[in-house]
Automatic annotation (TrEMBL):
Transmembrane segments: none
Species for this entry: Kaistia dalseonensis
UniProt-recorded name of the protein: Ketosteroid isomerase-like protein
Top-level taxon: Bacteria
Signal peptide region: none
């Protein structure tokens, strides 16, 4: 029998980026049942600014993936936060808008907190005006 150490915040973030968009069920399983996914500026395009609970996080990502196809994540830089299981990261995402076939590109800054090997808080910051333009194209 092997003792497996729970994933830390950095490992969870990198695993989540690897799973999107190919396995949304495995991606959502990385989140605690009571996880909170914050999108502080999402009101710019009339989306919820917070989703609470694994099912709500899953629904939010399902909505996003209904808009954007062929996601590719690149240029990931992770910074650990001292004295807690948390990270801040920056990465780029490219893809295609499903409605128009036009390119999608965005840079994200995220803060991820973990506890007991699961993501408890995920805050995502991005250029919402750019995203809104993608939605309108």
């Amino acid at each position: 029998m092997t003792d497996s150490k729970p994933l830390n915040a950095e490992e969870l973030l990198l695993r989540s980026l690897d799973l999107l968009p190919r396995d949304l069920d495995a991606w959502s399983a990385l989140f605690a049942e009571d996880a909170v996914f914050h999108l502080p500026y999402a009101g710019t395009f009339d989306a919820p600014t917070s989703r609470e609970g694994r099912e709500a996080v899953f629904a939010g990502m399902t909505w996003f993936l209904s808009l954007v196809d062929k996601l590719e994540v690149g240029d990931v830089t992770v910074h650990n936060i001292a004295a807690r299981d948390a990270v801040v990261a920056e990465y780029s995402v490219t893809g295609r808008m499903r409605s128009s076939g036009k390119p999608f590109d965005q840079i994200y800054i995220v803060r991820v907190e973990a506890e007991d090997g699961l993501i408890t808080h995920f805050s995502e910051y991005f250029d919402t005006l750019r995203f809104k333009k993608h939605l309108e194209s």
